[in-house]
């Protein structure tokens, strides 16, 4: 039996490598997949086999449209290979076209659709692949694809809600920062030269603004910019570590206004994902594992993984969820009712619908509250700089008039 060396990443995103005996490359891929290891490279007797990878390039909207069209074609009775060929041919996104062509070739060579899609993990995530696999096993692939497209569309809606909540304040702060820097760098020095030539007595606000202008115009201002950029890069690298991600995600959930919105988004995503998986026939343990990995927040992910371990040990679902203190009591109570009545998937979908409506209302309320605050902040800061520059002129005019 040949020996293969391999490298890849495990479920936690950690790089792993090693050697393993297997009858073939396909068998080794299957064995490692069961251990939740995604292979990047595989080598046998000096020959290297690189898994085909495509970086990003496919938006959630494109994936939702593809899934919806795919379900309609399957429901109409078209052969699987022909569906993939037609959908690949009409793709404007060349990256997605190459991926679908690769999936079609793999299916033609005898692989299942789910195993072919699993090779393109950056486009077809574990949730997508596992639901397709459940659809293939149960003979309801068209129904599963319809559920998938609806799920992706709901997920896109949630992402837009987050963007709507963040874009406005970020844009206003960026504009305010840019205007202030421009005033301090270009406009204030002109006034400072004028005041020095006239020998005017400067009030405290004017001296502070001129001091800031001198600081920004000096080498120290450049140092501050470099340090700030370095801090942002360091924070980004720290966020990619498990400790940093957990700390920052926990901080996000504690922020005023925004924290509550992010918590509602997390609950909606958790219930929508788990409900979709359960209704598609995915086992509860596997569904919880996939839901945790797609939670989007390390705190919620950790809570779901703890719940999964408790369920695996023989406990019900609702009690471990309560113990995490992450999910609202209404959510755990409704899940408990769904567990007792055997309608868990329907109950989870109802919770998701409710919280998605809550997210929409919370975004509108947040924007309504932030708009006047941002206007006052922008006007106060910029107006303060301008007024501080005119204060000496007012004093001089008053003295001349006297």
Can you give a write-up of this model?
It is a single chain. With 402 residues, the protein is α+β, with helices and mostly antiparallel strands. It has 3 domains: 3-50; 60-153, Receptor-associated Protein, CATH 1.20.81.30; 157-402, Up-down Bundle (Receptor-associated Protein). Helix content is 75%, strand content 6%. The chain contains 16 helices and 4 strands. The chain has a 4-stranded antiparallel β-sheet, covered by helices on one side. α7 runs parallel beside α16 and α15 runs antiparallel to α16 (344-401). The longest helix has 58 residues, at 141-198. The chain is elongated. 30% of the residues are buried.
Quick structural overview:
75% of the residues lie in helices and 6% in strands. With 402 residues, the protein is of the alpha+beta class. Strand 3 and strand 4 form a beta hairpin.
